[in-house]
Design a protein that fits this description.
- The structure is a homodimer of 413-residue chains.
- The first copy, chain A, contains 16 helices and 17 strands.
- Chain A is of the alpha/beta class.
- The first copy, chain A, has three domains: 169 residues, Molybdenum Cofactor Biosythetic Enzyme, Chain A, CATH 3.40.980.10; 73 residues, Alpha-Beta Plaits (2-Layer Sandwich); 157 residues, Maf protein (Alpha-Beta Complex).
- A six-stranded mixed sheet of chain A has the order 2-1-3-8-7-6, with helices on both faces. A five-stranded mixed sheet of chain A has the order 14-13-15-16-17, with helices on both faces. A four-stranded antiparallel sheet of chain A has the order 10-11-9-12, covered by helices on one side.
- In chain A, a hairpin with a 2-residue loop joins β10 and β11.
- In chain A, α2 packs parallel to α7 and α3 packs across α4.
């Protein structure tokens, strides 16, 4: 089944909020083997709503609309769909009672304004999707073989109605299965990867699609199979995993940080960080993963040289002779924090993130990263030459990639 | 001018990534008084791309398309637009040289595959938007009075090209001047703020609009004046700043982190951090600001209790009696890191970010934050009860707000 999502509201078009609702709905539909063909964000305008509904109904059998069901006058969705479907709005008695109860709870001393009662207005003949967690109900409308669902835009109300009212209804009508398999790879650029697996990619049947999703040093491969048994997708998944060997970080759809936390947890390993130019970003990206406390005890942000000396034990002579942004310093930082925290692995960064602080010898974007492992410490110089934000982001990504590579190397030995 | 944004790529439709690019572009265009009328997300499919371009060109004069410019064969955008505009693709020599240089830098020992060269293919007659920070260039195409812009989907490349290539071109082409003034406020909710300035808002001329942009404890006020001299916008800006007094964090459009770095630099103050549940996120948000090294020497991520004891000097008895997530511990963490680093101010966090680790007494989302200043230490308990990501994000925002409030209070004394 093809679906489309339409979000109504100026906030997304103005960039005041990011549309995370659609991504969430996309995930849910995907799990139910329903393919989202298009997501459209439009303003609270009758003409735009009508055009979007009309176009979507020419392409999809399921149309999910969020937003525009609030009580204020800039929400025109109800009137517009009444015209679009050529059916009147009727006031639902059960919903009205619910709206009145909620209003009393939040404002016990006030009379409910007429405008709020309009939230109980639903399209005549629709299936009312009762909203336990908010005032505006959802509506399920079947019209000329197409399913239309209207939902409030408030994320937790939308999620409640989707989970409890819509997905159960959709779960029945499935004809075709959709299956996905993922491979997270490291150490091969998108084009090298493509060359490495050309023959496998060319042998894929029509029903299986391969997508490359590159991101900061990793390439995520996604196989999607539509409409057949899952045996062949697993066959190709295995083929790819075998071919890519040590470049495979994970065979499921996780981040490098998640892979590190999972693997280190399994092996009982601990990681520590000593950051200068990344300013806590490496620690932050590791600790964003649930369960990071199993592998991470300690991180030091050593922005000033005295902290590098006093906490991490970097030799003042090294700082004097080579400077803070040097291989010697970053190695001592990594080894220092490893010792301090009794960790098995440690990452250190020192560089010039910019925009200030560059010199002809060490321009902005010069970054040294060291990773100290069980048996050795590796270090590498990068020249990112970008904005502060990007220099930091890339330093973090490269540091985690270096950690992964050393971890895999030491695993083999 | 009306604009539309089209994003190409399955990842958004599958819900694997949230479309934050469009919101960012929407903000930038809005500042130029260009109204985004629709945002459309579609798959890497020639037919869908063609239909979207065709429909968008019937509604808007500016169409910004992101994504689908990668080197692999699932990116069909280039071929599709060649057909759509009925013009061949040509290989741009300068871009090819740039792609080769970048390739050499990242993989000095390898031959560049043919597939990468295709990234230098651009539409014949387009204006090539040279991409300093990545391989795929952008393209600016004017066709039947409509401006089409094609950009890579990688956020930092998209942002670089928008900021440095597209916005300047759009700014030059504008007929009416657009001026903005900002006020960043803290400590007043949106509705209280509105009540505080009702009379000023009502006295605004037709040509000046006031927008409220609330986000995580701050409210950003934006005055926009279209088409007149800038004198009156400054008059109203001053009126608002005067009225809001100590609630004003900044009179320009900067983040709270930037305001902290600026103010602390001016006063010669230093900040330190001792983080548990925020895992380096507070240090990271401060050090994301250029010039942060003037105010920030040291941050400790003390995830494990032994680090809280050994590095920050938290009393083991306090940890035993009250636990790591307690007012007593977080106060000792803040005071400990302040002493350790000789800073003037210190922030500490300790909480249960989740999803694991909650108890009936201290459920997920329980977070203690302390800020130690020149004369006193303040602390506060929060109950965010959200996902790990949101709990961390809110903890950081609240910690910075608490720091700012204590700083302003101690400034007055």
């Amino acid at each position: 089944m093809n679906a489309e999502i339409i979000t109504i509201g100026d906030e997304i078009l103005l960039g005041q909020i990011v549309d995370s609702n659609s991504a969430w709905i996309g995930q849910q539909l995907n799990l139910l083997n329903i393919r989202v063909r298009q997501i459209t964000s439009i303003a609270d305008k009758a003409q735009d709503i009508t055009q979007s509904l009309s176009l979507a109904s020419s392409r999809a059998e399921l149309i999910i609309v969020t937003g525009g069901l609030g009580p204020t006058k800039d929400d025109v969705t109800r009137q517009t769909i009444s015209t679009y479907f050529n059916k009147p709005l009727v006031r639902d008695a059960a919903v009205l009672k619910h709206v009145e109860t909620l209003f009393k709870r939040f404002a016990p001393d006030r009379m409910m304004p007429e405008i709020n009662k309009a939230q109980a207005d639903v399209l005549d003949g629709c299936e009312v999707l009762f909203n336990d967690v908010g005032t505006a109900p959802g509506m399920w409308i079947e019209h000329q073989q197409i399913k239309y669902v209207f939902l409030p835009g408030v994320p937790f109300e939308m999620k409640f109605l989707t989970t409890n009212r819509i997905l159960p209804k959709l779960r029945d009508g499935q004809r075709e299965a959709v299956a996905h398999r993922h491979i997270i790879t490291i150490g091969l650029g998108e084009s090298f990867l493509a060359r490495e697996i050309t023959d496998i990619e060319e042998s894929l049947p029509e029903s299986i699609k391969l997508a490359y999703l590159p991101k900061l040093g990793l390439v995520r491969l996604r196989l999607t199979q539509i409409g057949e048994s899952e045996s062949s997708i697993d066959y190709f998944h295995n083929l790819l995993v075998e071919r890519l060997g040590r470049h495979v970080v994970s065979t499921s759809d996780i981040s490098l940080e998640q892979a590190i936390v999972e693997s280190f947890t399994q092996k009982g390993l601990k990681l520590a960080t000593a950051e200068s130019c990344t300013g806590g970003g490496i620690a932050s990206s590791i600790t964003s993963v649930p369960g990071a406390s199993c592998i991470f005890d300690c991180g030091i942000v050593a922005y000033h040289n005295t902290i590098k000396q006093n906490l991490l034990g970097v030799d003042p002579k090294v700082l004097d002779q080579y400077g803070a942004v040097s291989e010697q310093t970053v190695i001592q930082m990594a080894e220092g924090v490893k010792k301090l925290s009794h960790a098995d692995y440690a990452i250190a960064s020192s560089g010039i993130a910019g925009p200030g602080g560059g010199t002809p010898e060490k321009p902005v974007g010069t970054v040294w990263i060291a990773v100290s492992g069980k048996n050795k410490t590796i270090s590498r110089l990068f020249n990112f030459q970008n904005s502060r934000e990007i220099n930091i982001e890339r330093s973090i990504a490269q540091a985690l990639a270096m950690l992964w590579n050393l971890y895999i190397e030491e695993l083999d030995n």
